[in-house]
Specification:
This protein is mainly alpha-helical. It has one domain. About 80% of the residues lie in helices and about 0% in strands. Helix 1 packs antiparallel against helix 2. The longest helix is centred in the last third of the chain and has 31 residues.
C-alpha cells in the first residue's frame, strides 16, 4: 500500500468519525454530551481539511495517485 493510499484511507476514516460524532450530537438529549460531540466533530473537521490539503499535495506531486 502506497503512502497516498494510506493517507486517503486515513481521510475516509476521519470523515466517518466526524459523521459519527455529528450523529451522536444529534441523538443525545444531554446538553453536555451534545456540546462535547459537537466540539469534537468541529475539531475533526479541521483535521480533515488539513489531511485533504495533504492529499492534494500528494496528487500534485504524483499524478498517478489522482482519483484513488
Amino acid at each position: 500500500m502506497t503512502i497516498a493510499t494510506q493517507v486517503k484511507t486515513c481521510l475516509a476514516s476521519l470523515k466517518s468519525a466526524q459523521a459519527n460524532l455529528e450523529q451522536f450530537a444529534l441523538g443525545t438529549q444531554n446538553q453536555e454530551a451534545k456540546t462535547l460531540f459537537t466540539n469534537c466533530a468541529q475539531q475533526t473537521e479541521q483535521i480533515v481539511q488539513q489531511v485533504e490539503s495533504r492529499v492534494q499535495q500528494l496528487e500534485n506531486e504524483e499524478p498517478q495517485y489522482k482519483g484513488f
